[in-house]
Amino acid sequence: MVSEEEKIEFLKELVSIYSPSGQEEEVAKFLVESFESFGVDAYIDEVGNVIAEKKGKGNRILLAGHMDTVEGVIPVKIENNYLWGRGSVDAKGPLATFFFAFIESKANLIFASLVDEEGFSKGAKNLSIPQPNFIIIGEPSGFDGVTIGYKGSLTMKFIEKVEKFHGSLSSKGAAEKLIEKWFEISKDFNEGFDKPNGRILRFEAYERDFDFYGEMIVNIRTPIDYQPPIKGEILDFVPAYEVSVKSPLVRTFVRAIRENGIKPRLKKKSGTADMNILAPKFKVDAVAYGPGDSKLDHTPHERLNLEEYLKAIKVLKTALEEIKILQPPKE
């Protein structure tokens, strides 16, 4: 068994390696070397993912986290039992939780540390591994929570071109037409898992020769079966995903959390995760689990409660013992 001090030191070192999307090489090497120090073979695949496998009894379980972060350096420190640092919550805390559950469990496991989750999920889309029976995604649900659904993500581009006219006229230019499109797209935006929401990622208006030009890129967080009121050029689309509360995987996590003396919570999130890609890809049930307050994701206040991190490792190990003998749901 690995000591609590070693688990905290590992997490601190993992968070100390700055790894925004596209710059994951150093943290990937650290993970491979860490696995090797425990006698586990690991490798970096063609797109930069770190893969390790453990042959055990029962169902094959995929533990898939991500090692990239958004940009922005936060000095790494431990203060009042919190570890501060970019990625401590999203999602190196969950990734470290997966690492030690993998090391200490006797289940049949695949560990995958993925690249580009904060970008366009190149790691998840190109993941090539043996077929799993169940998937657990490393994202901050809180040590007492399990995430059963994520909204989808739709990124679209709109372009307008209008012949120039004199400024004294009341005609609509390219920029005004794009603004109207945005109002039409966003008219039904609201909070909650079953409503779309989103933002403008880029807006540019300019003149060229005898025309007004405008370009707008938007991202919409989409509920199940969403259809936008206006369609532009689709740059990227990941559908929403939700697993049934009756799934044996969900029920197992609820029991595991309770067995560790904690009241469980089921969550649906307005963000998008690699769960949206991997569950449909492998056609198996998936949930997301990991320590951390997701409200701190991407903020300058990102920090992880170390006591909750250690509890999450225990919860996950408890869950893995039952998941390995579960009967996978029939298609």
From TrEMBL:
Its GO CC terms are: cytoplasm
Its UniProt entry gives the catalysed reaction(s) as: [amino-group carrier protein]-C-terminal-gamma-(L-lysyl)-L-glutamate + H2O = [amino-group carrier protein]-C-terminal-L-glutamate + L-lysine; [amino-group carrier protein]-C-terminal-gamma-(L-ornithyl)-L-glutamate + H2O = [amino-group carrier protein]-C-terminal-L-glutamate + L-ornithine
* Binding site residues for Zn(2+) 1: 66, 90, 139
Give the Enzyme Commission number.
3.5.1.130, 3.5.1.132
Which pathway does the protein contribute to?
A: Amino-acid biosynthesis; L-arginine biosynthesis; Amino-acid biosynthesis; L-lysine biosynthesis via AAA pathway; L-lysine from L-alpha-aminoadipate (Thermus route): step 5/5
Its annotated compartments are: Cytoplasm
What's a single GO MF annotation on this record? hydrolase activity, acting on carbon-nitrogen (but not peptide) bonds, in linear amides
Determine the domain of life of the protein's source: Archaea
Q: Which residues bind Zn(2+) 2?
A: 90, 118, 298
- Entries under Pfam families matching the protein: Peptidase_M20
Q: Which InterPro entries match?
A: ArgE/DapE_CS (IPR001261), LysK (IPR010175), Peptidase_M20 (IPR002933), Peptidase_M20A (IPR050072)
Q: How is the cofactor bound?
A: Binds 2 divalent metal cations per subunit. Binds 2 Zn(2+) or Co(2+) ions per subunit.
Keywords annotated in UniProt: Amino-acid biosynthesis, Arginine biosynthesis, Cobalt, Cytoplasm, Hydrolase, Lysine biosynthesis, Metal-binding, Zinc
Q: Does the keyword Magnesium apply?
A: no
The catalytic residues are 68, 117
List GO BP terms, alphabetically. L-arginine biosynthetic process via ornithine; lysine biosynthetic process via aminoadipic acid
Cofactors: a divalent metal cation; Zn(2+); Co(2+)
Q: Which family does it belong to?
A: Belongs to the peptidase M20A family. LysK subfamily.
Which HAMAP family does UniProt cross-reference here? LysK
Cite the NCBIfam families for this sequence. Answer: dapE-lys-deAc, PRK04443.1
Biological role: Catalyzes the release of L-lysine from [LysW]-gamma-L-lysine and the release of L-ornithine from [LysW]-L-ornithine.
Q: What is this protein called?
A: Putative [LysW]-lysine/[LysW]-ornithine hydrolase
Q: What is the lineage of its organism?
A: Archaea, Methanobacteriati, Methanobacteriota, Thermococci, Thermococcales
